[in-house]
From TrEMBL:
Matching SUPFAM superfamilies: Stabilizer of iron transporter SufD
Domain of life (superkingdom): Bacteria
Annotated family: Belongs to the iron-sulfur cluster assembly SufBD family.
PANTHER family given in the database record: PROTEIN ABCI7, CHLOROPLASTIC
InterPro entries (UniProt xref): Fe-S_cluster_assembly_SufBD, SUF_FeS_clus_asmbl_SufBD_core, SUF_FeS_clus_asmbl_SufBD_sf, SUF_FeS_clus_asmbl_SufD
Protein name, as recorded: Iron-regulated ABC transporter permease protein SufD
All copies of domain SUF system FeS cluster assembly SufBD core, residue ranges: 119-347
GO biological process: iron-sulfur cluster assembly
Membrane-spanning segments: none
Length: 374
């Protein structure tokens, strides 16, 4: 399938399954101006030959079907059309796709786990995952990433009418890993999606979560925390496409940065189309810069094509530790380093507490504590 005739907006002009429809980026494009292309290991220009080794394992509760299918399966690519060069490269290069199906009206008592582990190897690895949640079903999904790899993938979340899907995506890659991924959620009538991203590891990680609505009543909540160390580049680019009336979205991402050349990028795009009357949306990004030499780029964008909205707003803030907060704690006998940890832990912990999977929540809090102890 070739280039879409109707662009989504001035912010997102292309969507195509065909790699040839996307020019090789040079870094001057709006979509790539913050990304250090030289560190993508060829994912953006076709020079990353397949050969990387990534193992994917699934643990699913009874009643959930997990199967590997060919690219000719009708469920693959049905919800998401690649929107940039790397996404299209991943779509053109994967061998088998993983399809996870939750039957209608199922209420899972346990989470579905997808473990993605990089095992090194020369070259890049590519993947594709489809998660379908039937009407009125409720499911929780955890996707873990670890090990060493150059990896690009697309993940489609198809949430049926009245269904609820909660997803936690955890990036705990080794220090040399490169990961570029697009996560797309398509919501049916009265569907609910809760996506939580935790990005800690990797040399360069660029994640692009997006949401689209196919009927009124959809409700999406996108949250994320990230901790950037010296030399790391962690980038999150979000898109919420409000194309149906009376839908809701909320975005809240928070990050902490420390060390020379630690770089965080957050781009939040919300489009409210002319037909999306009654939309209620808000997006927020906050960054806490802990040391000199760290840099945070935060760009919220709101494109409104109708005046009939319930609410629409955005905010972004990046700054250092509040001296008054530190002074308050020190005045009560708490040493500076401990006071610093308490402030950062509270800043990120407000979001981390939203993770309903206890094992992951405790691991993330422990990882943040380890980062602060460096």
């Amino acid at each position: 399938m070739g280039l879409n005739e109707k662009p989504l907006s001035t912010l997102h002009e292309k969507a195509s399954y065909d790699l040839a429809d996307f020019e090789v980026p040079n870094g001057r494009e709006e979509a790539w101006r913050f990304t250090p292309l030289s560190r993508l290991k060829g994912l953006h220009n076709g020079k990353a030959a397949p050969g990387g080794q990534v193992a994917v394992h699934v643990r699913a509760p009874e009643g959930v079907q997990a199967e590997w299918v060919g690219r000719d399966d009708s469920r693959v690519g049905a919800a998401y059309v690649p929107a940039d060069r790397v996404s299209a490269q991943a779509y053109a290069s994967f061998d088998k796709a993983l399809v996870v199906s939750v039957p209608k009206e199922a209420e899972l008592s346990e989470a579905i786990w997808i473990d993605v582990k990089g095992n090194g190897g020369e070259g890049a690895a590519y993947g594709h995952v489809v998660v379908e949640v039937g009407p009125m079903a409720q499911a929780t999904l955890v996707i873990e990433h670890s090990g060493s790899a150059v990896y690009a993938d697309n993940v489609e979340f198809v949430v049926g009418e009245g269904a609820t899907l909660k997803v936690v995506s955890l990036q705990e890659w080794d220090d040399d890993a490169v990961h570029v991924s697009h996560h797309h959620a398509r919501l049916a009538k009265d569907a609910t999606f809760r996506g939580f991203v935790v990005t800690l590891g990797g040399d360069l990680v660029r994640l692009s979560p997006s949401v689209a609505y196919t009927a009124p009543g959809g409700d999406a909540d996108l949250s994320g925390v990230y901790f950037v160390d010296a030399g790391q580049h962690l980038e999150h680019r979000l898109l919420v496409d409000h194309s149906q009336p009376n839908c809701r979205s909320n975005v809240d991402y928070r990050g902490a940065l420390q060390g020379e050349a630690a770089h965080a990028v957050w781009i939040g795009d919300v489009v409210i189309r002319a037909e999306a009357e009654g939309t209620d949306t808000y997006e927020l990004n906050r960054n806490l810069i802990l040391t000199d030499g760290a840099r945070a780029d935060s760009v919220p964008n709101l494109e409104i094509l109708t005046g009939e909205v319930a609410g629409a707003g955005h905010a972004s803030a990046s700054g250092r530790l509040d001296d008054e907060h530190i002074f308050y704690l020190q005045a009560r006998g708490i040493p500076y380093e401990e006071a610093r940890r308490l402030v950062v832990r509270g800043f990120l912990g407000q979001l981390v507490e939203k993770i309903e999977v206890e094992e992951i929540r405790e691991r993330v809090l422990a990882a943040v504590e380890a980062e602060l102890s460096r």
